[in-house]
Design brief:
Elements lengths: L2 H7 L20 H14 L13
Amino acid sequence: MTDDQWAVIEPLLPAAPSRFLGGRPRVHSRRLLVDTILYVLVTGCAWRLVPHDLVP
């Protein structure tokens, strides 16, 4: 995803929850998560076949 595309999508995503609300800390960036989801949708591959440089 290009920087221009990310600039359009990022404001549409929910804000990160406060650390006071609980939950696990994020391991991967939101941009990498969106890139992985788009990869699976565009290629039609199974989640287990996603390349290792994307989110498992």
